[in-house]
Design brief:
alpha+beta, eight-stranded parallel beta sheet, about 20% helix, about 25% strand, disordered N terminus
Length: about 750
């Protein structure tokens, strides 16, 4: 691009002028052809002949010390050369819309290759020129990476000074103009925007004003100024008439806003892809109230804007008010059943264009990549078979601690992309992916999920799948798969054996529930195992059947010891009447007379007396050190007199011998905030989501599969000393001839066992 600056009056050449470029003394103006244009040989160079009117001036002496110029206009033909011009979204461009289970742009299929950068408006408005440059940098890099959608918050206000909405119907014009800027810059980079209209969460953190709030909490604060509403809670937001009116007024104002940069009215801007009516709305034990609010607000948005798509913006939980037991079992925990969200019901309305979910493996205490895989596939199935609408993985990511390798995070991203690609190839409902969350260079606001512009290995994954997903959209093939069985097993940590393998239970490989011989028996996500000393009886914690099963290793016959298939609960008594909730680990003494069960869904430890046939609670969830959180492992000595429990959600190991609790290693409280990878005395040692354990028969040593540490840890039950036996905290698949000289590497180890 050649930029020409023309003045009607030009002074004599000076040092200032000569320092800026070659000066043409004949015409008394800067030469428009200097410096020389690049050679026009590149294949992508476009040549344009553009008529430009400029002014030629002839200088004559005058009687005074001044000069006068007789100026006449002339028309020059300028030769412009541009290399690879950047596409922009124009005013008259079509809007992306939903057709069946796909997105289309005009007549072409469209895939939302998205990223989240929720903070761009806040930075552009509050950081001045630096914030705007940071937004430009992210959007430029996004375009270069083949990304075409930005999901960002259409609000701000972590600090009072950068709140977009300052009161009912009152706005901070500086922040509105910052949002205008972000939308315009996205449009210039051919990037469409998912605009999130409001937030459930209060993320305000203003030390100068502790009462400052954002999200729905600001509405509640404004409404609660009246004595009548002083006790309103976040759940009340969805039914309160004043809150609903203020939300509607805000939406009407925002969608009718005219962008101060490009003059487009938001509701007519093709650079906006869609709206989230709220980020992660929740209404505990009031799902029908939330459903009514979603339907009402989606209709309100549609009544104002008939151009853009609409979705909810939720996590994707299933509600006990709407869904069956099979769907509730897919939730990350029983707590999710009562959050009010129901993926199918919430997205079924006529004004909801497509379905979307979020995935938070760390926050939900499901750091195993298999949970992410199953969570995606369940929602894809519902989108295709029940909703018959497009589906987007709107937020997904993985935490990364300071100094930690990028491998684990990259693997979580890669497996989500692969699930998406596999579905796209087959012509399924997956129409977009949006990883969380992009922060620019030098931006210190990122949390553990932050992906920074300079995270090269992560962007290598993002760039690779950006290309692969574009190819998948263009070349759908119902017989194609994104990965081979070998690649799938490698990614999901399923190991093969070079030795002989015999299936003694669940031969069909299909989930279900059935006792009998190996060919007939079925399990549903079997987790923990315990073998009696004689090797004849193998006890299985059959998680999703909520049962304890027994496999006779000699005959291959499976029977049910306790629990009722498909009936989660917490009931003690006879093994025929007792109920469990997602049992995941089991321990047995050598004698095989009783079992101890980590009943993860109930956050308790149960005892099954095999001689009397009675089930009892061995350890309640409330302890002197807080609640047990999602226990995933249990082991004991030969007599089961010494017992340890892996309190996974609190990243600690507990001694629960005799039903009394002592901390072996890890924090006393708030373990979810104090995870780490530290060896040494028990008082200083730390774990990160330990999953399973094995104890020596004499009860002196325990070994822990510490999932997020990607290591096998050793705990002396005599001294309390914690050490790392194998692994070094780096994700990988490396064997070692001497684990003490060169650490072996693991990928999310989930179990550990000892030979007798």
């Amino acid at each position: 691009l050649v930029v020409v600056v023309v003045r009607s009056l030009l002074p004599h050449p000076s040092a200032r002028d000569q320092g800026r470029g070659r000066f043409n003394s004949t015409l008394g103006r800067r030469s428009i052809l200097s410096p020389r244009l690049p050679a026009l040989t590149h294949a992508s160079t476009h040549i344009t002949m553009a008529p430009v009117t400029t002014t030629t001036c002839v200088t004559k002496p005058a009687s005074s010390s001044f000069l006068f110029r007789a100026c006449v206009p002339v028309v020059l033909l300028l030769l412009f050369a541009t290399r690879g011009a950047v596409a922009e979204i124009k005013d008259k461009d079509p809007f992306v819309r939903a057709e069946g289970t796909s997105f289309v742009l005009g007549k072409e299929p469209y895939y939302a290759n998205a990223f989240n950068a929720y903070q761009l408006t806040e930075g552009a408005g509050d950081w001045g020129r630096v914030g705007k440059l940071a937004a430009k940098d992210i959007l430029k890099q996004a375009r270069e990476s083949g990304l075409n959608v930005l999901r960002t918050f259409g609000f701000a206000g972590r600090l009072e000074r950068n709140a977009l909405m300052t009161g009912p119907g009152e706005y901070n014009e500086k922040m509105l103009e910052a949002l205008d800027f972000v939308l315009d810059e996205a449009s210039k980079n051919d990037i469409r925007v998912v605009l999130v209209l409001e937030n459930y969460w209060d993320t305000a953190m203003d030390p100068s004003n502790p009462t400052h709030a954002n999200g729905i909490h600001k509405y509640l604060n404004w409404v609660k100024s009246s004595p009548r509403n002083a006790t309103l809670t976040p759940d009340d937001f969805f039914a309160d008439a004043d809150c609903k009116r203020m939300y509607k007024d805000h939406v009407k104002f925002l969608l009718n806003r005219k962008n101060t940069v490009n003059g487009r009215v938001y509701k007519n801007d093709p650079a906006i892809l869609s709206y989230d009516i709220m980020n992660e709305p929740r209404c505990e034990e009031c799902g029908k109230v939330l459903q009514s609010w979603i339907d009402e607000m989606a209709a309100h948005v549609r009544g104002i804007d008939g151009n853009h798509m609409i979705t909810v913006g939720e996590d994707g939980f299933y509600s006990s008010e709407f869904s069956d037991e099979d769907h509730l079992r897919m939730n990350p925990g029983e707590w999710a059943n009562t959050q009010g969200q129901d993926f199918v019901a919430n997205h079924a309305g006529k004004d909801i264009s497509y379905a979307a979910i979020h995935i938070w493996p760390d926050d939900w205490n499901h750091r195993e990549v298999r949970f992410q895989h199953d969570w995606i596939l369940q929602h894809v199935s519902d989108a295709e078979n029940k909703l018959k609408k497009p589906f987007v993985i709107e937020e997904f990511g993985k935490t990364r601690d300071a100094g930690e390798s990028y491998d684990r995070r990259n693997r979580f991203l890669e497996t989500a992309f692969l699930d998406a690609e596999n579905n796209v190839l087959k012509g399924g409902a997956v129409s977009g992916t949006g990883w969380w969350n992009w922060y620019g260079r030098g931006d210190g606001r990122g949390d553990g999920y932050a992906i920074y512009s300079g995270d090269k290995s992560t962007f290598d994954v993002i760039n690779k799948f950006s290309k692969r997903l574009r190819r998948a959209v263009a070349g759908k093939d119902k017989k194609a798969v994104a990965f081979t069985s070998e690649e799938f097993n490698d990614l999901y940590g399923m190991l093969s054996s070079e030795g002989s393998v015999e299936t003694i239970g669940g031969s069909s490989g299909e989930p279900g529930f059935s006792d009998g011989q190996a060919k007939k028996s079925k399990f549903n996500e079997p987790h923990g195992l315990a073998l009696t000393a004689d090797g004849k009886h193998l006890f299985v914690a059959d998680k999703e059947n909520h049962c304890i099963r027994l496999v006779n290793t000699e005959t291959g016959r499976t029977s049910t010891v306790a629990g009722k298939a498909g009936e989660p609960g917490l009931i003690n008594g006879s093994v025929k009447e007792a109920l469990f909730n997602q049992p995941v680990a089991v321990a047995a003494p050598g004698s095989g007379k009783f079992l101890l069960v980590a009943d993860a869904g109930n956050n308790v430890v149960r005892k099954v007396d095999l001689e009397t046939g009675i089930v009892s609670t061995f350890l309640e969830k409330e302890t002197p050190f807080g609640w047990i959180g999602n226990p995933q492992g249990i082991s004991c000595d030969d007599a089961c007199e010494k017992v340890i429990l892996v309190d996974s959600g609190n990243s600690r190991v507990l001694d629960i011998s005799g039903g009394e609790v002592k901390i072996v290693a890890g924090p006393e409280d708030k373990g979810w905030e104090k995870k780490g990878f530290q060896d040494g005395p028990a008082s200083n040692a730390s774990f990160s989501f330990p999953l399973n354990s094995a104890m020596s028969s004499d009860g002196r040593v325990a070994f822990i599969a510490s999932n997020d540490n990607t290591a096998i840890r050793k705990v002396s039950l005599v001294s309390g000393e914690v050490s790392t036996l194998a692994g070094d905290g780096k994700d990988g698949k490396r064997d070692s001839g001497n684990i003490f000289n060169e650490p072996a590497r693991f990928r999310w180890p989930m179990g550990v066992s000892l030979t007798p």
